[in-house]
């Protein structure tokens, strides 16, 4: 098979939720990690990846659950390649769906099996992609989040942690600040001022609630914005400056670490 048969389609139908559909033959992704839960299904073929120190293979109809900040890669496990659908979900939304006080009070569910057969999860993913890449109705989006949260809780257990000592409102202010100001330089003093907390308490509490560190969340916002501009055909040098990266090599390094491929390869895949 040749690379021009590979493709990748994504959309963000609601805040904190992203859908992806792709096909790959041979190599797909270099090692990378997301700040989100990644919940998906292999539609045909088989894909292999390393996750939490072990080799995994997901075959047609099997479900994958990857946790925030866990490195993984990806490649075809059969000559004909594989296709798959994936939903990326902000951990805070999962926490909110499970506990009205937020993830910090209850803890995020951890699913030990990266690959499994799960009819309920398969049905949820099928519904989420029924009109892809068309619009996802807001009510359908809310139902999807609730269903995924329940499925994760059913499959796993909350991570063990000490009770959160930081007010959730302070963490939400920090996250909103990072969402709004990602394109400019941000340091720890900025976040301390927003949260009225010291940087170390903030870093620990932010990870408990959102599944990743403040800096990784900031970089994720930058590379996500960069991906949208790249898909629109914006030159990479312009993308780097517009999204808070010091130069194009800085963009390339973080984009590859986050999405498992270079910005140039991504641009070629989405252009087909």
UniProtKB/TrEMBL annotation:
Q: Does the keyword Nucleotidyltransferase apply?
A: no
Every copy of the HTH araC/xylS-type domain together lies at: 172-269
Q: Sorted alphabetically, which Gene3D superfamilies does this protein's record hold?
A: Homeodomain-like
Q: Which UniProt keywords apply?
A: DNA-binding, Transcription, Transcription regulation
Say which domain of life the source belongs to.
Bacteria
**UniProt keyword Transcription regulation present:** yes
Question: What is one Pfam family matched by this protein?
Answer: HTH_18
Extract the PANTHER family matched here.
HTH-TYPE TRANSCRIPTIONAL ACTIVATOR RHAS-RELATED (PTHR46796), TRANSCRIPTIONAL REGULATORY PROTEIN (PTHR46796:SF2)
Q: What is this protein called?
A: AraC family transcriptional regulator
Lineage of the organism = Bacteria, Pseudomonadati, Pseudomonadota, Alphaproteobacteria, Rhodospirillales
């Amino acid at each position: 098979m040749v690379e021009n048969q590979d493709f990748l389609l994504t959309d963000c139908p609601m805040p904190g939720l992203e859908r992806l559909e792709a096909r790959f033959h041979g190599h797909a992704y270099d090692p990378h990690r997301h700040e989100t839960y990644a919940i998906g299904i292999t539609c045909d073929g088989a894909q292999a990846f390393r996750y939490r120190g072990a080799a995994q293979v997901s075959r047609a109809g099997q479900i994958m659950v990857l946790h925030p900040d866990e490195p993984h890669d990806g490649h075809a496990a059969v000559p004909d390649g594989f296709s798959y659908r994936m939903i990326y979900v902000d951990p805070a939304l999962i926490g909110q769906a499970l506990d009205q006080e937020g993830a910090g009070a209850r803890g995020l569910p951890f699913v030990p099996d990266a690959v499994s057969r799960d009819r309920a999860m398969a049905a949820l993913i099928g519904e989420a992609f029924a009109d892809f890449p068309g619009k996802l109705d807001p009510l359908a989006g809310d139902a999807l989040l609730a269903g995924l949260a329940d499925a994760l809780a059913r499959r796993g257990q909350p991570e063990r942690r000490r009770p959160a000592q930081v007010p959730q409102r302070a963490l939400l202010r920090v996250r909103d600040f990072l969402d709004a100001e990602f394109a400019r330089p941000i340091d720890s003093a900025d976040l301390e001022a927003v949260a009225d907390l010291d940087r170390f308490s903030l870093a620990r509490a932010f990870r408990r609630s959102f599944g990743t560190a403040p800096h990784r969340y900031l970089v994720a916002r930058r590379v996500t914005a960069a991906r949208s501009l790249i898909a629109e055909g914006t030159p990479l040098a312009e993308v780097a400056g517009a999204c808070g990266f010091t130069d194009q090599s800085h963009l390339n390094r973080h984009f590859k670490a986050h999405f498992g491929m270079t910005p140039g390869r991504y641009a070629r895949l989405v252009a087909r």
